[in-house]
Task: structure prediction
Amino acid sequence: MTISILGIDIGKNSCSVVGVDDKGAVAVRRTMRRQTLIDFVSKIPPCIIAMEACCGAHHLGRLFRSQGHEVRLMSPEYVRPYVKAQKNDDRDAEGIAEAASRPTMRFVDLKSEEQLDIQSLHRVRSRLVAERTTLINQMRAILLERGLIFAAGRCKFESAVDPLLNEQASSLSGRVQKLVAELRDEWKMLDTKIAALNAEFLALARDDLATRRLTAIPGIGVLNATALIAAIGNASSFDRARDLSAWLGLVPRQFTTGGKQRLLGITKRGNVYLRTLLVHGARAAMPTLSQSDTPLGHWLRGLLSRGMHRNVVIVALANKLARIAWAVLRRERPFDRAYAAITA
Result:
């Protein structure tokens, strides 16, 4: 039995495995537990092991690579067209093995444990921020039902709610005032947890040279820089800066037929969290950059002078920041604000 490509469909408790030979014929088709899978892979000759880039794939990938195998991770959306007939775990594993054999397939780099640690911190912070937003919206709705309206914005709402809760003669009933106070305490607890994670990101940025280089780019702060490092590492998986922008979904969506090219809005594909951070960073940096005497400033003023909508300019700036970040990571050289270029 010779296995050329081993396709693995990872499950919570069991994994479906399909091994194909050099001619593409199925040589192995089994379902096994994770530990059984690890023992099985350790006994077969080195081959290509293909998996979808999902939870647990990077851990198994590093383990299999240490045993001499070549690991290929793929996005699930690229595997889907190769799944034939009815969908089941065996068909998924077979489709994974077939997709990995295609010469034009795009693969995902294995993440290190350090990258996964940073990614986990970002995901926890994102969940906490979402919980805080939900809680604030609930507080606004409760108070709106009592005729209390507050200005938009978290900070403005916070500065208005605290005096309301401290008032002795409040228009709220005793039970509602106690409920809002409990929600406010929960809000403070979430603020504390988010601040602790922000401090951890700041410490990571100070200790890592690549992160410090990224934070020198206008519009890329500590959160953006650490998220970039966690997602793409040294950007070696992208041959060109545009490839990173396309992976982030910041390039125009193309609808071309009959040789007639038509460009629509951005694709919004790829890493949603990272794209959101870059857009927010571009929005924060645009007022200062548009007034600066730098190539980026002249470029922004040129876009604005053509009457382009502000949001379109912000997305274009986010695209530009992603390309600059690619150059900083690939060339390992700092960003020069004066020339908007990579310098020695």
Q: What stands out?
A: The first strand starts at residue 5 and ends at 9. The two ends are 54 Å apart (CA to CA). The chain has a mean pLDDT of 90. The first helix runs from residue 34 to 43.
